[in-house]
Design a protein that fits this description.
The complex is a heterodimer. By secondary structure, chain A is mostly helical. Chain A has helices at about 5-20, 25-40, 45-65, 70-105, 125-140, 150-155, 170-180, 185-220, 225-255, 275-280, 285-295, 305-320, 325-345, 355-375, 380-390, 405-425, 435-450. Chain B has one domain: Rossmann fold. Chain B has helices at about 5-35, 40-50, 60-65, 70-75, 90-105, 125, 140-145, 155, 160-165, 170-175, 180, 215-230, 255-265, 295-310; strands at about 55-60, 80-85, 110-115, 235-240, 270. Chain B has a 5-stranded parallel beta sheet. Chain B is elongated, with a radius of gyration of 22 Å. Classes of the chains: A mainly alpha, B alpha/beta. The interface of A and B includes residues 20, 439, 450 and 457 of A.
Chain lengths: ~475, ~325
């Protein structure tokens, strides 16, 4: 059940209505049942896998809390192995197997391991990381183990953020699931407003850009360098609006239910350096890697060379987290290398004068677009071909679709609002804040969706991870 | 009920009422602008619906709109011609349009251009039926095509704004942009310049497969096109235009099925997919399957000769 489907709209209305009609003590039960239904709408059988890891982590949490010393550590490792094991089987087995086969073929040996014809459970990387966050925090003593199995299951399965985050921390989400808030009209209204913005980003911007991007990238051999460069810029905005649109819908849907999820995006393309970009892009994943990988490896408090290795390790894992393909590995490593170069040359991220900030922002955007080529291209060869064509910058722009002008229009509007919000946030307080003005605003957003939205039911890009 | 909840529901109702009003009023405005278009993809449908009077009507995808030089064909055959080809379209577009055009006018010849894999199931083909959304409830044949679409389109069409989804840009461009309106002189022909002589073709691998997934709806629509032409006593010619690298799109079960249906119905089929005059000649193509104006001219001449032979009675 995709957020951008009529089914989800109906599901959301029914669940929210039942939620507020239910007695407070049963609300979490309703949310858990709804979350199970939501997950099973994709592939019902996979609920058993998710259920299995939930059981393991639930008991691991309880026993970790009760244990001390080596036993405590062993239980944590057991839980992590179970989670990473599921990830490995479903996400990385065929990738590893394929590469083993390639290596063996080099010595003229055939690969004895079979290929597994399995589908990747939806949002596996997201809920696995959220589950691991729980056991690690219990191990560290920052979170007490949840005694109610159902509540823990809801923490992992909470439907708005189940399939693509934000990856929540137990300290943030679990207490909210236990609260029995009464109906807060302001919260519900704010949540609906954020959901609407998410739908605008997804349906009007991301899916519109996707039409051009998909056409040009899928016919890269027929495209000029200029067309491919344009498609890469379009992809940068497509993936941003696709993922941040999803996040807005998730955060908004949770807010309607009285639950605050963490902010996941903060105008990332206005970052003046790549390190700043990673503080603004997929914040819940960046902070996850910071807290559970980068800091334990030593973070910044080690020698320079060690720190650079740490950065590379984090971005290598980040690349692999996104997908079991060499293109993602290269994408991750490229980000790591650029971060190292930034660190080596101590590129300041604090805003300087207007021109230098503009230059740094544009340069950062170009570097990000460069890395996105590897993220979007199906193979490394194709990515290198596209890169070569872009550097040649030959030919003319041939869109091949009639969505071309809309694409520039929607990017223009998006940038306009992002720049206003970034540099003159106070401007919004001058706007009228009456019910009538809000009403006009909501209807305008809905009308924009109905007139300019793309309703082809396309999946969210990050659902595949 | 809690007072807060009551107030919220009243406000929500107000938003819904305002939305319905805006949807209706804006929909009317969009509709008025929509039917003023003098070119572009929607103009072709409106033309078929309202005032198509040409002798030869050409239907198909971009392989029709970019390959059939209608003004040239008009000069060569001495018949009036209009090219209804629209990018990315399939039989789901062709049949309703044929049916609409035949309703008020009996042409001398209908040309339907089909790709080899036209009868294959392709989910995108269903999404592209959305081109008919602005014409919802105008004719049952259009409504039945829309009913084939996924995502409950018939339900969404209750919104007037949604019916005219993404049409505002087209409506403005093809109503007020004099340069684009001029294209109407091309009689629906949309040439795409450029050639592929400087492009690397090495990454092209064969895409034909032994796995076949026929679309029964498309087969039905093809049979309906044939039926509509034959019951109205209109000559029907099915064509497949030249392909640069025939080996990539080499014949498969889809082509055989297409040929089988056409042969059984006694329909003329002009197949240039593997024609030596075009195959491998980069100067005629703007990509693997699309002819550039030079290629389109050559193809139109060849096709016009065939049409003249049909009208002369030497091909039956």
């Amino acid at each position: 059940m995709l957020f951008n489907s009529l089914e989800f709209v109906l599901f959301f209305i029914v669940v929210t209505t039942l939620f507020y009609l239910s007695p407070h003590r049963f609300r979490w039960v309703l949310l858990l049942l709804a979350s199970c239904y939501f997950y099973m709408a994709f592939l019902p059988i996979y609920i058993l896998i998710l259920g299995g890891t939930i059981i393991i982590d639930y008991f691991a949490g309880i026993y970790i809390e009760k244990s001390i010393g080596r036993k405590r550590k062993a239980l944590l490792i057991l839980s992590l192995v179970a989670n990473i094991g599921v990830l490995c089987v479903f996400k990385y087995y065929n990738f590893i197997n394929e590469n083993i086969g390639l290596i063996l073929s080099f010595w003229h040996h055939s690969n004895p391991l079979p290929y597994l014809n399995i589908l990747l459970p939806i949002g596996l990387s997201f809920h696995t990381f959220q589950a691991m966050s729980y056991t690690i925090e219990v191990y560290r003593g920052n979170q007490s183990a949840e005694k109610k199995f159902g509540l823990y299951a809801l923490y992992v399965m909470f439907y708005p953020q189940l399939v693509a985050g934000p990856i929540e921390r137990p300290q943030q989400l679990l207490p909210q699931l236990k609260l029995n808030d009464t109906f807060d009209a302001r919260g519900v209204s704010a949540g609906l407003q954020q959901m609407l913005m998410g739908f605008v980003k997804k349906l009007v911007v991301a899916d519109r850009l996707a039409i051009n991007v998909d056409y040009i990238y899928n016919h890269s051999a027929d495209q000029s360098g200029k067309s491919l460069a344009m498609a890469t810029v379009f992809f940068a905005f497509q993936i941003y609006c696709d993922f941040s649109g999803y996040t807005d819908i998730a955060i908004g849907a949770a807010k309607v239910l009285g639950i605050d999820l963490m902010k996941n995006f903060n105008r990332p393309y206005l970052a003046a350096s790549l390190s700043q970009f990673w503080h603004r892009w997929h914040i819940s994943l960046s902070t996850w890697f910071r807290d559970y990988v980068y800091f334990p490896l030593g973070g910044n408090r080690v020698g320079k060379l060690h720190m650079y290795v740490n950065l590379l390790v984090v971005f290598l894992i980040s690349g692999l987290w996104h997908g079991a393909k060499w293109t993602f590995v290269i994408w991750g490593l490229l980000n790591g290398f650029i971060m190292i170069i930034e660190s080596m040359f101590k590129i300041k991220t604090k805003p300087g004068n207007g021109i230098s900030t503009l230059f740094k922002t544009l340069l950062t955007f170009v570097l990000i677009c460069f890395t996105w080529i590897f993220f979007r291209a199906p193979t490394i060869d194709n990515a290198l071909y596209i890169l070569k064509k872009i550097i040649q910058f030959d030919g003319s722009i041939k869109s091949g679709t009639d969505h071309f002008y809309y694409s520039f229009l929607v990017i223009g509007f998006l940038l306009f609002f992002e720049i206003i919000t970034e540099y003159t946030p106070g401007v919004y307080k001058y706007l009228p804040n009456t019910f009538a003005s809000r009403c006009v605003y909501y209807v305008l957003l809905l009308a924009i969706i109905l007139q300019f939205g793309v309703f082809n039911g396309s999946q969210f890009i990050y659902f595949q991870f | 009920m809690n007072k807060n909840v009551k107030l919220f529901l009243v406000k929500l109702l107000a938003v819904i009422c305002l939305l319905i009003t805006v949807d209706f009023v804006a929909g009317l405005g969009l509709k008025a602008l929509f039917y003023k278009q003098k070119g572009g993809k929607y103009y072709k449908i409106t033309h078929a619906l309202k005032d198509a009077q040409e002798d030869i009507l050409i239907f198909g995808s971009s392989h029709a709109s970019e390959h059939f030089n209608a003004p040239l064909m008009q000069r060569l055959t001495g018949k009036t011609v209009f090219n209804f080809g629209n990018q990315g379209q399939t039989l789901f577009y062709i049949y309703p349009l044929v049916k609409l055009a035949i309703l008020h006018h009996k042409p001398n010849l209908i040309i339907v251009n089909l790709d080899y894999n036209e009868l294959a199931y392709n989910p995108e083909a269903y999404e592209r039926i959305s081109i008919f959304l602005p014409y919802y409830h105008i004719n049952p044949v259009i409504d039945s095509a829309i009913a084939l679409m996924p995502y409950n389109e018939s339900l969404k069409c209750h919104s007037f704004l949604y019916r005219y989804n993404s049409t505002l840009g087209n409506s403005i461009l093809y109503t007020y942009n004099k340069g684009l309106i001029k294209n109407i002189e091309n009689l629906g022909y949309e040439p795409i310049p450029g050639d592929i002589c400087n492009y690397d073709r090495t990454d092209k691998t064969a895409i034909s497969s032994n796995n076949t997934n026929f679309d029964p709806n498309k087969i039905n629509y093809l049979l309906q096109v044939i039926h509509a032409a034959q019951t109205n006593h209109v000559k029907l010619l099915v064509t497949t235009t030249p392909i640069y690298n025939y080996d990539v799109y080499k014949p498969n079960a889809y082509k055989q099925k297409l040929q089988q249906i056409l042969t059984k119905a006694n329909v003329q089929y002009l197949d240039y997919g593997n024609n030596d005059a075009f195959k491998g000649k980069c100067e005629y193509f703007s990509d693997d399957t699309h002819l550039n104006p030079k290629g389109a001219t050559k193809w139109t001449i060849e096709c016009s000769n065939f049409i003249k032979a049909i009208f002369a009675g030497s091909i039956k």
